[in-house]
Input
Amino acid sequence: MIKSAFAILPYKELIEITSQFSSDYDLEVMPDEKNVESAIPAALSAEKNGARVIISRGGTAEIIKKHVHIPVVEIRVSDLDILRVLYPYHNKERKILIAGYRNAVQRCRSVSQILDLDVHELLIPYEKEEYNIEDVKKAADYLIKLHKIDTIIGDQTAIENLKSLCENLHLIRSGRDDVMEAIERTESAFYGRPDGGKYNRYVKNVLDTVNDAIISADNDGVIRVFNSSAEKLFNQRQKSVIGQKIESLLETQDCFGKLKSSISEVLQSGLSNHEKIIKPAGGDYIINTSPVMTDDKNLGVVLVIRELLNSSGQETKKIRKQLHQGFSTRYTFDDILTVDEGFLKKIHSAREYAASDASILIEGESGTGKELFAQSIHSGSSRCSAPFIAVNCAAIPAALLESELFGYVDGAFTGASRKGKRGLFELANTGTIFLDEISEIDKSLQVKFLRVLEEKQIMRIGSDTSIDLDVRIIAATNCDLKKKVKEGCFRSDLYYRLNLLNLHLPPLRQHSDDIEYLASHFYRVFNDKYTLKGGALSEEVLDILRKYSWPGNVRELKNIIERIVLTAGSSRPDTSLIHLVAEDIYNEDCAKSITGNTLEEVKYNAALAMLKEENFNKSKAAQRLGIDRSTLDRLLSGKNQR
Output
């Protein structure tokens, strides 16, 4: 029987290697040299014409998986391929830019650290179905000038689009072993897929009769099975989910985020992982994660998600005891965005801290990303599959904080639960507890904190029995904690125990290169979120943003950009609109220097422009500006009153 696979590959050498191997494996491979822009129509055409598997490479493979319903086998880039292209620069003074899709860049990162190379990274976002390659080129040009880069190493998409920016470019090539391994996995894909649409329809009908949600993904993490109960649980249609990465699906509901690490474990070990318990909004569920095995080969993973109400009484009791253990992180180091060299060094230090179990003190102003770093450290540590619990010490009244953290036994105090209560330290056991605003805890409670750090034990309120703990502590503060020690407001012994490792996050004004970078990023994100097509931020608008000191740091920048996007709609925001909807970011002198007008004139022009855009409908114009009609009338009459 002739088996048909269609190969969509980026360069001729790879096509030649693939064609040579295919004859040895009785595979009919129809190679087609395509770039990423033309890969999707080529893949859809191949599927329509009877191809049963598509072979591709890197980010192109990831994009194709979102659009077809047949298996997509990726020709992977091995560490040897990365070493082959990076090693010639070992012990040479070169400034290198690693550019390409996420998988290639991440593999280059670890190898470059071993070789001690001076590298900078630029990700091409294959996660988005549409992205502007001109934005990528602009970012590359910025990094090249900023860091005096003289060498670019990347995948085919990066090399093809960045060749005008640098003379010294090197393509990351896949070797013969990579191609052989991919073709072997292509054969597995054939054998793992029963012939005949009638049989497939029968299996689908069987799965749809099951009350449990059933989701299966192949060993590349691509969803292949999604039954009707899963459709109801995730509120998504099967057609839109098949072919997606399972991680993307889980991220649509925060409560399922922790399953990503469980899936990785099952794919790597081939061992089942039962009774992963979470508590999503609307009900409690049991998650059974198991490998899909054929001839001792792990072909993927299957998740069976069962609603607690459908479980047996004994099973329900067991699960109820374990509820509230589903604390997990949402962020990793890849979510920390920066082009600033100093801030990149902070990320590098934090990555190294993740390998340790020592306590960390993160210092920085509000909005600088302290919890983002704390979550990333946990996600990058050996504790990543264990709980991560964040506690804002200033948000919980002092009288309640002790019982929340340490728990209590029956009858410990008036109003205590008869069953007692486990504290957050216990719930975080084997994982990480993040204590934000640590400076705000009462001094009497600081003694108990010290005991946890020194003895690795806690004692519930009202108990005389110690409980052993294995918890990593990450603390954070937005004030000068050392100064508080000198003032006698914070115990010095606790300070030094918390401050074994220190990470000071600078305010945004001290890495000002990130203002434009982050503003443009948030602008694209919010335009996508609200399905708007506002034009790019102009240089005049960016200049206003650069001149502001950003006391609220990245959080403030993100909030203001969202406000700008919502107000501008599909129009390109101009300086007058920025001044009107974000008064905090400028002063009168700044307004006059940029526009030549007074502040009142700026507001009048912005209000009038919005009124014209809404065909002089004052209600709609006011709504777009986020103000009421009386304020709009005052702005429009202001010029005439002077």
Observations:
- The two ends are 87 Å apart (CA to CA).
- Residues 513-529 form the longest helix (17 residues).
- The domain at 333-506 is CATH 3.40.50.300 (Rossmann fold).
- Residues 192-199, 309-326, 588-596 have pLDDT under 50 and may be disordered.
